[in-house]
Write a structure and sequence with these properties.
The protein starts with a helix and ends with a helix. It has one domain: MFS general substrate transporter like domains (Growth Hormone, Chain: A, Up-down Bundle), CATH 1.20.1250. The protein is built from 19 helices and no strands. By secondary structure, the protein is mainly alpha-helical. The chain is globular and about 50 Å long. About 55% of the residues are buried.
Length: about 425
């Protein structure tokens, strides 16, 4: 925690306030993870319809990323954060009144905007507030907000649903979102060069600029790896409660998410600081390997122990892979385009999340839930191979980086102790 106490008081206060707001936001979102699939089933939804409704969440994520990333660069991170928290507050109220599957899918898509806006604004603002030479450490600390929120939210949501029903559950989620909105209003945002960021590159439209960044060498492999991660995560979010029920286990699905949160919390504290010293590559590779272990354990699970063990592996995977990937992208982009870069990289994750529900829901109708995790094991292997061979300019350089034996070929962050100006970072980006 030394990194937080070594920075300016106003920056520290903003980071702490932002952390508390994020905690309530993630608790609001994750309170519905173990309960919403059961609610859809309660309303008469089939396995495929459950997958479609849960996957619709990402339909709100995908298109909104394209506009919200540049908006964070041009109009400010706080505005985008406030949009995310406000949608996170309003959407649960809609579940009180919506009972048809098509309308639930539309509401779920609207709810997805909350994650798109909040993650872009939160990550960009944390990176703005963090000193360059402590970036991995501070991003690691601040990313704890998601696993802590996930430790609280699913358990709270499962308890409220079981003891009081669905209406109190949705009201609780909305109330947590309201606290997040109030917290964000108290956060200080450092000034940024909005005028330059607002100019589309080479006269291109926002969508063309977004796609150009997405296809660039610094972003192409991270976005592809995040696509695999999104498919795996989407399967877990949508089908774990139903898989536990299908196995006939006497296990609250919220406990699975609690285990993932505990593991995610535990690994993030040391990983951020270590990545500043040893590089991001080796930790991303470890995180992807943990995803593989989680899927293998779930594939052969037949008791509470195996399901909870898989939750530990999945939590470690998310706790390492996602913050390390975001820190990698922060290393590779100029400060005034962080919103655009983060939205492009996370777009891969969103696409996986959108596809997982309907695709794997259709497969589950034929094969059952167990086979889904075998397929996801293959996706984890593919992600490992992509990162090992494609994260630098050639395969040998990529392997060295992924194994922690080489530098990031696309990093723009100047060496610690130097004062390389931002314009030199951008010149280097153009060359690469």
């Amino acid at each position: 925690m030394n990194a937080l106490f070594s920075i300016d008081r106003r920056q520290r206060r903003s980071l702490l306030t932002l952390f508390v707001a994020g905690l309530f936001f993630w608790a609001a979102i994750t309170a519905l993870l173990p309960t919403l699939p059961l609610y859809i089933e309660y309303l008469g939804g089939t396995k495929q319809q459950i997958g479609l409704v849960m996957g619709a969440f990402a339909l709100g994520l995908l298109p909104s990323r394209i506009g919200l990333g540049p908006l964070a660069d041009v109009r400010g991170r706080k505005l985008v954060l406030a949009i995310g928290a406000a949608v996170g507050m309003l959407a649960p109220l809609g579940y009180l009144f919506v009972t048809s599957i098509p309308l639930l899918a539309a509401l779920r898509a609207f709810h997805g905007i909350s994650i798109a806006a909040f993650t872009i604004g939160y990550t960009a603002l944390v990176t703005d507030l963090a000193p360059d030479n402590r970036r991995g450490e501070i991003v690691g600390y601040m990313s704890l907000v998601a696993p802590i929120g996930m430790a609280i939210g699913p358990a709270l949501g499962g308890f409220i649903q079981a003891s009081m029903g669905y209406s109190p559950l949705f009201l609780t989620s909305a109330s947590l979102g309201l606290v997040a909105v109030l917290g964000i209003s108290q956060v200080w945002e450092p000034p940024n060069d909005r005028a330059i960021a607002s100019q589309p590159e080479s006269g291109r439209s926002g969508i063309h600029n977004y796609l150009a960044r997405l296809g660039s060498p610094p972003l192409r492999i991270p976005a592809s790896v995040m696509l695999m991660v999104g498919l795996i995560f989407g399967t877990i979010v949508t089908f774990i409660p139903l898989y536990i029920q299908d196995l006939g286990l006497n296990l609250n699905a919220g406990l699975f998410y609690t285990m993932t949160a505990i593991a995610s919390f535990s690994v993030r504290l040391p990983m951020g600081r270590a990545s500043d010293r040893y590089g991001r590559g080796i930790f991303i590779l470890i995180g992807l390997s943990c995803y593989l272990m989680s899927m293998i354990v779930l594939r052969f699970a037949d008791g509470n122990f195996e399901v909870l063990l898989a939750g530990l592996f999945e939590g470690a995977a998310a706790g390492i892979t996602i913050p390390m990937m975001l820190t990698l992208i922060a290393d590779r982009c100029p400060p005034r385009e962080r919103g655009l870069f983060f939205s492009a990289c996370l777009g891969g994750f969103d696409l996986g999340l959108a596809l997982a529900g309907p695709i794997f829901g259709s497969i589950a109708e034929v094969t059952g839930y167990r086979q889904l995790f075998g397929i996801n094991s293959g996706l984890a292997v593919l992600a490992i191979l992509l990162f090992l061979t494609g994260s630098a300019r050639n395969v040998p350089e990529s392997v060295r980086f992924a194994l922690g034996r080489g530098k990031d070929a696309y990093a723009l962050m100047p060496p610690i102790g130097t004062d390389s100006p931002e314009t030199e970072w951008e010149d280097e980006l153009i060359k690469k």
